[in-house]
Each structure stands twice: as C-alpha cells, then as structure tokens.
Write a structure and sequence with these properties.
Low-confidence stretches: none
Distance between the termini: 19 Å
Order of helices and strands: EHHHHHEHEHEHEHEHH
Radius of gyration: 17 Å
Strand content: 5-15%
Helix content: 40-55%
Largest sheet: 6 strands, parallel
Strand order of the largest sheet: 3-2-1-4-5-6
Mean pLDDT: 95
Number of helices: 11
Length: 232
C-alpha cells in the first residue's frame, strides 16, 4: 500500500549534473575508435538512453551487436577519466535539500550505476536527503519505458499523483508521462524546449537554480496543495 506523502523523482545527468556533453564527446570517441561515423548532434539527442538502447538507436538494429559490449566499455573508460571532477549544475544540492525540508521524499532515477553513480552522488552532494536510487540495474527496460519511474515510485512508496519527475531529455518526459506522474523538464541538458514539451513536459525551467527560485509558483507547490487536500 502506498504511503501518504509526495515524492520528487530526479534524473541525474543533465538534470542535476552538468555531464551531458561529456557523454556526447566520450560516446563520439568510442564510436570513432570502433570505426563508426556518428555525429555529435545525433549522440546528444540519444543521451539519456541506457547504453544498449543508445547504441541501437544510433547504429540500428541491423548493426553488429557483438560490438555493443566493446562500445559500452570504451565509453565507460573514456567517461571515467572525468569522475573526479564531474560538475553539479547550479542549485542542484540546494534544490534537493529544499524539497526535502518541504516534506518531499527524494529518489534518483538514473541509467548510471557503479563508480559512475558514486561520482555523480559526490558531485551533487545531497546524500543526506536522498531516500533511494532506481538505477539501470533495477529494471528490465530503461527510459523511455516507464520502468525506472515505477521503480522510483516503489522506493518512495508514493502514489503517482503525488509525484513529480524532473528530467532533461525527451526520454525522461516520455517515461514520466507513461508512469502517470507530473513531469518537469530542465533545459540544462541542451535539449530544446519545444522537444521537451512535445514529449510531455508540463513545465520547463532553465536549470535547478531557476526551478528553486520559482518553486512557489510551480507544479511542486500545486502538488503540495493537492496532496494536503487529499489527506484532510
């Protein structure tokens, strides 16, 4: 049975950490090393998918799938050189702490795992308010399937009506919409506003600090009022 309360579910790359373009460059180099000519523009719009889905999206289903593991390992090794200095986005830690103080349960929903996830958590610096993490290892299908959001809801033990999912890609917006939660997009991942709105974003903000400044006039405040009304 779902607990009363509300949950703020967060993607990480491009939403809380300024890492999307690092992924673009390191995926581009991984593809180049394997003999594939893939544009950075196309890679950028695929960021947010899990590794296997990203490779399939960019190279097609008729690719040599025996290369997938090599491509993924190359990207991981290249991206890993940045782990010690991954940057959080402006206001990321403050936003999570503020939401926690307002009674929200914070859960991360990310395709990152292992050392990469540890590096992202160090960058965000908000472990004291994060209630749990739904990672790629926890679900059968990644975004845009709703599975990661469903897993995050299970961790938070909150009804979808009482949850908001924050992300920066069309894959995030589609996953959140399919899971039945409120969806909010940030432009900090570099995806155009129109694309995010078309994918289901109910509201769009520049970055975490922008959302933090405007919390009292946002879906966050409206969800707080609706959850309080249902518990009266």
């Amino acid at each position: 049975m779902k607990r009363q309360g509300r949950a703020a579910l967060f993607d990480v790359d491009g939403t809380l950490a300024d890492t999307n373009h690092l992924h673009v460059v390191t995926w581009w180099e991984a593809f180049r090393q394997a003999g594939h000519d893939v544009t950075m523009h196309d890679i950028h719009h695929a960021v947010g998918l899990g590794s296997e889905d990203l490779i399939a999206h960019l190279l097609g289903e008729d690719r040599d799938k025996d290369q997938d593991e090599q491509l993924s390992a190359a990207h991981t090794a290249l991206y890993g050189t940045y782990f010690a200095r991954l940057p959080a986005l402006p206001g990321a830690s403050e936003l999570l702490h503020t939401l926690h103080d307002r009674g929200w349960r914070i859960v991360l929903a990310t395709s990152a795992g292992g050392p990469e996830l540890e590096a992202l958590r160090r960058a965000i610096d908000a472990d004291d308010v994060i209630a749990g993490i739904a990672s790629a290892d926890d679900v059968e299908s990644g975004k845009p399937a709703p599975d990661p959001v469903h897993q995050a809801l299970d961790i938070a033990e909150v009804d979808p009506r009482n949850a908001v999912f924050f992300g920066d890609t069309v894959w995030d917006m589609k996953a959140g919409t399919r899971a039945g939660v409120h969806t909010v997009a940030l432009l900090s991942g570099g995806i155009p506003r129109a694309d995010l709105e078309e994918a289901g974003a109910a509201a769009v903000y520049d970055h975490p600090a922008d959302l933090l400044r405007r919390l009292d006039d946002s879906v966050v405040a409206r969800t707080e009022k609706s959850t309080e009304a249902r518990t009266e």
